[in-house]
Amino acid sequence: MLDDVADPADLRGLWPPDSPLGQALVTTRRRDAALTGTGRRLVEVGLFTPAEAVAYLAETLTVHDRTAPEDQLTALAADLGHLPLALSQAAAYLTDAGITIPEYRELLADRATALAETAPDALPDDQHHATAAALTLSLDRADALRPRGLARPMLQLAAFLDPNGIPQAALTSTPALAHLTAHRTPRRHRRGRTDACPGHRVRSSRRLARPAPAPPHRAHPRHSLSGRPRPPAHAARRPRHPHPQPAPHSRPHRRRRPGCRLA
Q1: Mean pLDDT, the chain, as a whole number?
Q2: Is this model's pTM higher than 0.85 or not?
Q3: d(CA 149, CA 181)
Q4: What span, in angstroms and rounded, lies between the C-alpha atoms of 86 and 106?
Q5: N or C: which end of the chain has fewer CB within 10 A?
């Protein structure tokens, strides 16, 4: 099997001879006449039909103990243009993030609108903005998982390497690890579960709106010798007089004279 052939010239000398013992399968986006010939049959692989797209979503969600109404599945499949790749990304996102289809469709619409404002009018390979939105949502989700912030730099690194196979040693080498560390997605650009679920954002904002609990009571420190509690630092202290003051309504103090007694 040869996957995603970019140039028909790459197949020169690789076509196996006709044999009843096996078949060769080649996938490509090209439609050149050089791909056809004796003993070769061209099979067009199109999109899912609406029924196939709904069946795929329902079956994929059922495997992960998830169910959804048929009308929601139909609407989501239509949003994604019945493209198998986009449907697989959406099903994986729904299963992993644990959100509902209406919540995912809201995220998809917001992301597709944002991409449409910056992307060209026509995307390559007849792609749709909804497909790109589904892929970027999945990338954001992967970037928020542990180890966080490595999905984007890893994808960028793999895009510069051989598409037909990358040795694991190349991705775990010292230069590759240095690249991943230097280009890790900043924390402010990561989108976690709170960004993935609009309802969760509302619930989180409600929790943030609650009054903060009162600070816990703290006991005053005690003096190391007397054991009495010390007043807090901000407590007001009574002014100390240089001389003791007589108590109100008290009799004046009389001095005793030597050899005299008071009557």
Answers
A1: 76
A2: no
A3: 9
A4: 16
A5: C
